[in-house]
Amino acid sequence: MGKTAGRKKRIIITTAAMLAIGGGAAFAYWTSTATTDKTVQSTADSTAITISVGAFSGSQLSPGGPAQTATFTVANPGTGVQKVSSVAATILNADGTAWAAGTCSKDDFEVSTTVVPTELSAAQSVTGTVTLKMINRVDVNQNDCKGVAVPLHFLAS
Amino acid sequence: MFRSTSSPQGPPRPRWGLVLFGRLLRGTALAGIAFAVSLSSGAGAALAYWPASGTGSATAAVATLIPPTGVSALVMASNVSVSWTASAGAVAPTGYYVTRITGSTSAFACGSSPAAPLTTTACTDASVPVGAHSYVVTAVHRSWSAASPASNSVTIASLFELAFLSQPPATVTAGSTVAGLRVQLQTPGAGLLQPAPLRTPGVQVRLGLGSHPAGGALTGELTATTDAFGVATFGGLIIEKAGIGYTLAASSAGYSGAVSTNFSVTAGPATQLVVASPASLTGVASSTASVGPILVERRDAWGNPAVGEKATVMLSEVTGSLSVPGFFAVTAGGENIVSVAIQAGSTSTAFYYRNTKTGWTTLKPSIPGFAVPDGISVEVRAGAPNKLKLTIANLPVLKNEPFSATVSIADAFDNQTQSTALVSLTSTGVQKCRINGAPVTLAAGNGLVSFDNLSHNGKQTGCEFTAASDGLPPVHLIFDVV
Fold it and tell me: Which of A8, A95, A132, A143 to mutate to test the interface with B (most CBs of B within 10 A)?
């Protein structure tokens, strides 16, 4: 009886250890995260995807004027399959801080993106569209927005 | 069970080393199976793909509005002709407004203003007062504006000019009539030579606002003709918007204009009570007054905030979808009140509201004898999730009949919340009570979740459900199956 119990203990301990190892590996796969400036990956296979943005087309922005659009490409340079659920574009400085030029800020613009959620195989890519529009804010002086360059930060997840 | 020793008489038995190897092999196999199962179940999705992440950046250019250039002013008798070159660039102005600069003061000219821009590139500033002036032209495109540099300076030294024989009172009551305002034609003085009346009848003189606060407007007899003494008399002039810094401007073709002295317009007597702010309000069900502050203001007939004697504002409501009326307080969390005072010399006061039930209501502050205000619409929403409420619609439960249990996530005052939290339902009664369909976990929708198609296949007393959700105390319900 005592030997049986010992054998069960070994099985349980071995199973627990392997589960811990396996579970740890699984946990590592699911904790891929990205910050504004740096992408942190937990495994060598989960290489950060890249986002390249083309030039904006259309007239330059003005209050209540037409929107500008640009095409961006989300590519998977890694060797594994990566899922792209969404791509968010935000008006931010390159260091992730809030952008403003005098009294002109993100509140003076509308930005939206469209991309079809997809799973990217190795070396595959998908394209999306970003649209930027300047809002005409009635009774608000938007003169500080004249002639500025609006920085857009993209985050795919 | 293997024996620990062997002997020639004993039955053949495996060697101990082989036994250990066999046990190790079986143990490892079991562990391996368990590992495979764990991977296939828990980490299976992780093997399908990695959640991707990555960043990128871009910039977009904003256009600009270029100011007009080449602003030029040219004197033509008592008028000034102003012209400019239109703004260049991709953004075309929707119009321009012209400002006349005289010393340190400025005034809109050519009948233009930010709200009424010109679409031309030239205008005439008529009947300009004597003195040196320059002009600035400002391009307008929606919320953008771009002002030009000042024009050349021009000097008006007309042979004839207008002068106010009588000035408006220093203070005028909103909506009241200013009468008897007189403007005379005269020759300008020069050096020791005093201005002399110009007795020319039949000259049309126009009166308008010079400086004025936003929204101010002048109505009444704005045009008068000079009499035999060269005097134009204006009557029935009315300004409805209270404010300070008003001036009147007289003008006539061929004459330098005149500007009156400053005067103020004060509010008339209070005749109405209005909810000044906010336009509508949303609050949370509470036993303390937290919805507010709601500012009520007494105003004159033209909407100007008006002072007066101390007045009592009665507080009431017309409950819409609210099941019970609420309570008022002077301050947040204050004692219940039914009225609030506007002190003598003040124009307004404020109050708060509370209700423990959710729904819509319209608050109706009023002062006896005043016009009845529209009131303010208030929405009371449920507070934070505080408790679970577990019910079974039809008790007792019938054996072999499907039944449903409903769990609502309520706030502290039993109002159903908008929570979407997960709620689990577990059978926790006597062991023989095994409910088909439980345990089960579902997400609530708008604070409500229904567990359907539950059943028990025999009669049983002492059944119990326990509903649980993270952060809230579990709730139990004992029932019988008959």
Answer: A143
- Residue span of the structural domain in which A116 resides: 45-156
Q: Is the pTM of this model over 0.80?
A: no
Q: What is the pLDDT of residues B407-462, one digit of tens each?
A: 999 999 999 998 888 999 999 988 888 889 888 999 898 899 999 999 998 888 99
Domains of chain B by start residue, with CATH: 69-156 (2.60.40.10), 161-266 (2.60.40.1930), 272-381 (2.60.40.10), 387-481 (2.60.40.10)
A22/B54 Cβ within 8 A: no
Answer whether B39 sits within 8 Å of A26, measured CB to CB: yes
B26 sits in which H/E element: helix B16-41
Residues in B touching A15 (Cβ below 8 Å): 30-31, 34-35
Determine, for residues B27 and A14 on separate chains, whether the beta-carbon distance falls below 8 Å: yes
Reported as a single tens digit per residue, the pLDDT across A101-126 is 999 999 999 999 888 778 888 889 99
From the list A22, A70, A146, which residue is nearest B39 (CB)?
Answer: A22
Concatenated DSSP letters of B290-358: -EEEEEEEEE-TTS-B---S-EEEE--EEESS-SS--EEESSTT---BSEEEEPTT--EEEEEEE-SS-
